[in-house]
Design a protein that fits this description.
Strand content: 5-15%
Number of strands: 4
CATH topology of the largest domain: Rossmann fold
Number of helices: 10
Number of domains: 2
Shape: globular
Order of helices and strands: EHEHEHEHHHHHHH
Radius of gyration: 18 Å
Distance between the termini: 11 Å
CATH architecture of the largest domain: 3-Layer(aba) Sandwich
Structural class: alpha/beta
Helix content: 40-55%
Strand order of the largest sheet: 2-1-3-4
CATH class of the largest domain: Alpha Beta
């Protein structure tokens, strides 16, 4: 099976390139990950208004899904392909957001087989689902911060991770907005290799893991 995976930033791509081969066989299945420069919003009329070169994921999603649907329709029957869109929930209502995402696919013809996986609240929740991996990557991580974290809670997730592993915590990092994305990529490179995908406590990560395995029959 082949997967086309869309993520909202480079740190998400970095983490997935490490994690996916831990979840499914990279010898039996293939995947391409495309990262964007932010999440944005689904256009109300489902017509992408922003320029494609700006690479904002949800702004371009109707165009992307339509194009991928046309591409998948040309694949041979014995080469199944699935589109997976991974994005942060942030402060959205989960049920409403999921319905809006599904509406994008419903309006496409041909429709690609599509799975939406939503990180709750943010992608850093997947790292925080594995304290052992964080401790392996950052032996001096603040244990008090980690101890009081509730998995997939709406709490300012990247800030919580920054408070645990970044010198000066989220207060210092927030004053350096240009460095936040770079630091998130550093977390992906440092933490993801240590993650035990079968013993992660983030429900949204487990949903993603299990969907991949269900789709591939593993």
């Amino acid at each position: 099976m082949h997967f086309v995976i869309l993520v909202e930033d480079i740190s998400g791509k970095t983490a997935l390139e490490i994690l996916i081969p831990k979840i499914i066989s990279s010898e039996q299945h293939t995947f391409n990950i495309h990262h964007y420069k932010g999440l944005g919003h689904i256009p109300k009329d489902l017509k992408s208004a922003s320029e494609a070169k700006k690479r904002i994921l949800l702004d371009q999603l109707p165009r992307l899904v339509q194009g991928i649907g046309q591409t998948f329709s040309q694949y041979p029957p014995d080469y199944p392909a699935v589109l997976i869109v991974i994005c942060d929930l942030d402060d959205r209502c989960l049920s409403t957001f999921r319905r809006e995402l599904l509406d994008v696919v419903d309006k496409c013809n041909p429709q690609p087989k599509t799975q939406f996986c939503i990180a709750i609240e943010e992608g850093e929740a997947w790292y925080l689902g594995d304290f052992a991996a964080i401790k392996a990557a950052y032996p001096k991580a603040n244990q008090e911060v980690l101890k009081f974290y509730t998995n997939d809670s709406i709490c300012g997730t990247w800030e919580k991770l920054a408070d645990a592993v970044y010198s000066g915590g989220s207060k210092k990092l927030s004053k350096l907005p240009w460095q936040v994305g770079e630091e998130k990529s550093t977390w992906a490179n440092n933490i993801a290799p240590h993650m035990d995908v079968d013993n992660n406590l983030s429900p949204s990560f487990c949903y993603f893991r299990d969907k991949l395995r269900d789709l591939t029959g593993q």
